[in-house]
Amino acid sequence: MALKSMIVLVALLVAASQAEAQIPGLSGLLGIISINGTIFCSTNGNIIPNAATPTPPFSNALVQVTCGGNVIASAITNGLGGFNIVLNPLRFLLTSILSSCNVVVASPLSSCNSSLPSTGFLQAPLQLIGNTVRGLLSVVTLIPSLFQLINV
Fold it and tell me: What mean pLDDT is reported for the chain?
């Protein structure tokens, strides 16, 4: 009986590997692109080192992913300034996102601190952090690089 169970198990493993071989890249189809980060209330979106008071997070800020000037996704930061935007890799190529897309904080900085500029916006290119595969699910993680204040 144990021999039959072992033969069935081996047959299932072979069949599963053959299914992946017949449909190459299947794991790439079952995945997401996750863009996440934290925005702070400063002229570059980062914590101000050695500040007299801690840099507060930029809560309720509108964060957008823009590609070629078009908004493709958006989110609102939480109370800690964090955001997460999920993209479908079937609609957006990773290479295109990395080469032509930016994270934009569309909310004016003055909405979190009245002493900061009321015009302009923060913008940062995207940076690949890694790829995690769990079974057939693939999660590509991106973060914004250094933000810059873009004056308009």
Answer: 85
Mind listing the pLDDT tens digit for each residue in 50-61?
888 899 999 999
Q: Token pair for residue 110?
A: 């003055």
Q: pLDDT per residue over 119-139, tens digit each?
A: 999 999 999 999 999 888 899
**What is the identity of the amino acid at 64?**
Q
Give the number of other Cβ atoms within 10 Å of residue 39's Cβ: 26
Tokens of 87: 């993209």
Q: Which long-range contacts (CB under 8 A, 24 or more apart) does 130-138 make?
A: 133/27, 135/27, 136/26, 136/27, 136/30, 137/27, 137/30, 137/31, 137/32, 138/27, 138/28, 138/30, 138/31, 138/32, 138/89
User: 95 - beta bridge partners?
Assistant: none
The pLDDT tens digits for 6-26 are: 454 444 444 444 444 434 444
Find out whether 32 and 132 touch, Cβ atoms under 8 Å. Answer: no
Q: In order of start, what are the domains of the chain with their CATH numbers?
A: 25-150 (2.60.40)
